[in-house]
Amino acid sequence: MDSLIIPVIIGLIAGIALVIIFSTSDIGSTENSNPIFPQSNHVTVVVEGLKDSYHAGEPIRFDVRVEGYGYYCQSPNAAIWNTNQFLKSLPVWGSGLPIVSCDINGPQPVYHYIDDVYDWSAYQDIRIQQVGNYTLGVRLGEPLMAEKQFAVVP
User: Residue 123 has what DSSP assignment?
Assistant: First the structure.
């Protein structure tokens, strides 16, 4: 019986030491500075083709490019707000709800290269009749990832 106590104590000490080592190191961390073999998502969202101004009633055309590496499970969504209005939280145009295209609880490959373009103006007629200053905001997930201002003139 006494011969089992020493290996058990050594095993406990080794286990505790491993827990301490892994909790204080970046082994197993999702952040990695190696650009060739990334460990986490790095996605940028850019608004392309949006002009600085439009005439009232002129079609508004733009693309949203999602580029980088990683994995994302939903399409971006966009909205345009009149920045002159008191209630800036009410958009004058919205792309609709994002489309979820994968199991967000499933495995997500981080080595996947992304270069996707979304063009809502290809199938939606986006026109603003009211003269003023406007903001286009694009989200991919929760944070606002891209924002661009433009004006509608007479």
Answer: T
Please write the tens of the pLDDT for every residue from 30-43.
Answer: 444 444 444 455 78
Q: CA dist 82 to 56, 61, 91, 132, 148, Å? A: 13, 17, 7, 7, 12
Which class would CATH give 38-153?
A: mainly beta
CB 130 within 8 A of CB 85: no
Residues in CB range of 129: below 8 A, 6 or more apart: 56, 57
Beta-strand relationship, 144-153 and 53-55: parallel
* 151 pLDDT tier (thresholds 50, 70, 90): very high
Domain positions in the chain are 38-153
Residue 131 C-alpha from the chain's centroid = 31
Number of neighbours of residue 71 by Cβ within 10 angstroms: 16
Summarised one tens digit per residue, pLDDT across range 76-98 is 889 999 988 766 668 899 888 77
- The values of phi and psi at residue 148, to 5°, are -145, 140
Distance CA 128, CA 93 (A): 9
Residue among 45, 37, 46, 30 nearest 112 (CA): 37
